[in-house]
């Protein structure tokens, strides 16, 4: 099994494409495993000349679960966050960014292009802030700076994110996770038909860990705003967001693109908080053009 250890934590990873190609590291969202990347995205990147590197973030999938840290009350933590109280995470997004850099070390890679989705985009921001030499180019997809002054998510999106079922009832858990994904995916693309909800059952059977998801959520809300730090990022950056995202409204993507010098922004019509099949070709074109343009300048 392809794993490595970083500071005593075992991390699982996989790769696709020729090892001689330029690498692109995919970092997924909260609670999402690497098997929840659409095959069309991975294959499209490989066909575009990339070596795709994927990992299960700590506390997720086949990577080590941080059970010794306890199981936080996510609803109570979220309430504190929305009331402006300080949150003390059990580990940080910077720690998770260091995990990603350690994977590059393990593979003997000086740097990689980085594509981060949602929480993965936040981890990618921390990589860009703290470990900028490890990134050739940055693609931030449906993510946010963590600025509390941004427009808030819809109440339905918050409820969908926080309403996590018990792990011991497979049918109920899968049904709830599909419903949550459908809400987050927005009204235009049904996630269970074309989005990441298609992978819920296989991910549940592989390694479902709601306590790990809870700890990741605490890491997110405990990270605070990255907005000022993003103003110092000089990595070529592409921001992709949807105009129908109920969790992070389009203003979140616009803010990141405004903060990072010379960043480019694409707002995709009808896209919610998901990676639905009908827009993957567009995402591939954007990401590959961005990565290859940076490679050409190096």
Question: How would you describe the overall organization of this protein?
Answer:
It is a single chain. With 298 residues, this protein is of the alpha/beta class. It has a single domain (3-151, 210-297), classed as Alpha/Beta hydrolase fold, catalytic domain (Rossmann fold, 3-Layer(aba) Sandwich), CATH 3.40.50. Helix content is 42%, strand content 16%. It has twelve helices and eight strands. Strands 1-2-4-3-5-6-7-8 form an eight-stranded mixed beta sheet, with helices on both faces. It is globular and about 45 Å long. It starts with a strand and ends with a helix.
Number of discrete domains: 1
The CATH superfamily appears as Alpha/Beta hydrolase fold, catalytic domain
Overall shape: globular
Structural class determined from secondary elements? alpha/beta
Q: What would the average pLDDT be, to the nearest integer?
A: 94
Question: Level of helix content?
Answer: 40-55%
Structure summary:
The protein has 298 residues and is of the alpha/beta class. It is built from twelve helices and eight strands. Helices cover 42% and strands 16% of the residues.
